[in-house]
Specification:
four-stranded antiparallel sheet; alpha+beta; globular
Length: 135
């Protein structure tokens, strides 16, 4: 029941959101800004590594009101929650995943990007050790 209420709340927020204007689009060629078609879940996994849980409600028999995906990193207590990009209410296949929120897995408190990077520091260091920057 709580999950259904959460999904309805998210759906009402999404319906009320204005469409982005073309001037709000990220600058082309700037790697610091995400591309509008970029799958943010894939980028998240590429940056921080494989999560302990990669879940979705796409195949739920209850046909969810809001399709979602989540990545959970247990050791770091990080829960990343994604919604599909594209048109709200569209049929599968869904557009690229867009990050909705970051939470502490235990307390459900929202995390900032800085808190995320601090918690995931060990994973970032491992990734940079595997792929050192050329100088």
């Amino acid at each position: 029941m709580l999950l259904r209420a959460m999904c309805l709340a998210v759906a009402s927020v999404l319906v009320a959101m204005p469409l982005a204007s073309p001037s709000a689009a990220p600058a082309a060629g700037n790697p610091a800004l995400p591309n509008a078609s970029q799958d943010e879940a894939a980028a998240f996994i590429a940056r921080y590594g494989k999560p302990d849980v990669d879940g979705t409600n796409i195949d739920d028999k209850t046909h969810p009101t809001v399709v979602s995906r989540w990545l959970i990193y247990k050791q770091e207590n990080v829960h990343a929650f994604f919604l599909p990009g594209g048109v709200f209410g569209a049929r599968p296949p869904y557009g690229p995943w867009k990050l909705l929120t970051l939470q502490d897995e235990n307390t459900r408190q929202t995390l900032t990007r800085e808190e995320l990077d601090e918690r995931m520091l060990e994973r970032l260091e491992k990734a940079s050790a595997k792929f050192p920057l050329k100088q």
